[in-house]
């Protein structure tokens, strides 16, 4: 399989992960509210981060902006991982660590995608 095809699949996977979580953030799902209350960012942080995740997901799907979407997603997931490790814990409300491990996987995929596409950026080439 060609490298470009692999990274297309990775980009779609990252975008799907980012975008599918938006329904929880934008509908004020109790688990999402709990998370953002725990870290002191409810409601503006929940909604703001949701908007940023939507932007990152869209940027990842547009060929000229892949590097921006990957960099933004990497930063967002680094923040999520930091919050899990400092305030939330790995297991949030009995989820077995699913949110944490999804954030770690998304971080790694986003970082790999950014590294691959960084030369398309005017700042990191």
UniProtKB/TrEMBL annotation:
<keyword id="KW-0812">Transmembrane</keyword>
<feature type="transmembrane region" description="Helical">
    <location>
        <begin position="98"/>
        <end position="117"/>
    </location>
</feature>
<feature type="transmembrane region" description="Helical">
    <location>
        <begin position="44"/>
        <end position="62"/>
    </location>
</feature>
<keyword id="KW-1133">Transmembrane helix</keyword>
<feature type="transmembrane region" description="Helical">
    <location>
        <begin position="7"/>
        <end position="24"/>
    </location>
</feature>
<feature type="transmembrane region" description="Helical">
    <location>
        <begin position="69"/>
        <end position="86"/>
    </location>
</feature>
<keyword id="KW-0472">Membrane</keyword>
<protein>
    <submittedName>
        <fullName>DoxX family membrane protein</fullName>
    </submittedName>
</protein>
<dbReference type="Pfam" id="PF07681">
    <property type="entry name" value="DoxX"/>
</dbReference>
<dbReference type="InterPro" id="IPR032808">
    <property type="entry name" value="DoxX"/>
</dbReference>
């Amino acid at each position: 399989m060609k490298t470009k095809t692999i990274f297309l699949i990775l980009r779609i996977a990252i975008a799907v992960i980012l975008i599918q979580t938006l329904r929880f953030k934008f509908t004020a799902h109790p688990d999402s509210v709990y998370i953002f209350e725990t870290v002191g960012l409810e409601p503006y942080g929940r909604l703001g981060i949701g908007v940023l995740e939507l932007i990152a997901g869209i940027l990842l799907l547009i060929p000229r902006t892949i590097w921006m979407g990957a960099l933004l997603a990497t930063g967002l997931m680094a923040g999520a991982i930091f919050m899990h490790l400092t305030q939330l814990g790995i297991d949030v409300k009995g989820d077995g660590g699913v949110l944490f491990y999804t954030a770690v996987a998304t971080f790694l995929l986003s970082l790999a995608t950014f590294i691959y596409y960084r030369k398309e950026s005017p700042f990191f080439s």
